[in-house]
Model the fold of this input.
Amino acid sequence: MTTNAIGQRIDIAPATSVVGAFISRVDLREPLDAETVTEIAKALNRWKVLFFRDQRITAEQHLAFGRYFGELTPAHPIERGDDNLPELYVVESKAAREQYGHSKDRPRYAPPRHTGADWHTDITFVANPARASILRGALVPPYGGDTLWTNLVLAYEDLSDPIRDLIDNLQAVHRWHGFDGETREGYDRGQPPPTAVHPVVRVHPVTGERALFVNPVFTRYIVGLNDRENRQILDLLFGQITRPEFTVRFRWENDSLAFWDNCATAHLGPVDLALSDFDRRVERVTLAGDIPVGPDGFRSEQLRGEMFS
Done:
């Protein structure tokens, strides 16, 4: 527990021993002083994802909270944001069911849909992925819809020295998976999907920690390896980041927030969302990120499409 200069008390209660912490005794409807912001930022670096309960904030207050920690990005490089607040990315259960659910009207021999529910780090198909994300539960069902996060620093540190030596100097190509929904104004759906190349291991820009920087949704292949080697090494790394001992599971409630470090975590969105009969609405803002750097000094590059601005 810490007490800041104006007497506002902040509790930090770890959710697990390895990742995730609950932050309480802070009211996000009120302006935050510099010491409070510093304490929250330190907790984020330590615990990778922070959870807040009972924060009855407006969308504007949500954006204001994000701005304490950096510049906000547009809602998404491709998908449409809120009509009135372009920084706000909204996910509703109805849209998810239409995009990812099983439709009786879908042609029998149509290509498989993207399932949407798999481990990923946000927006890694651009060379400057979001630094962090803040997601608010605006309308939460009575059950279902949980989200999981994994600590990518711990996943890297748990690997053997020979494997770490191997992957420290590798790069991987990340590509957008495609999308059937509405895109943002001005986006050309006919262009090749946005693609970036990142170090397989990322050095955290604040803590200096090394973290695995691959994910099953966007990472397509490791540069310079043949097909067999790619399958085996990526399967190893994907399995490593999704091991239960590196993860935390969050049960959403109305007016809950999750604030996660996109440099050090991957997350798994609700696996039951498309099959649920309940309405669900979550709203996200993202903080502008820098160019990831690997242990060997390699800096991420945009191969196709635009960087995130």
In short: Residues 113 and 210 are 34 Å apart (CA to CA). The radius of gyration is 19 Å. Confidence is low (pLDDT under 50) at residues 1-8.
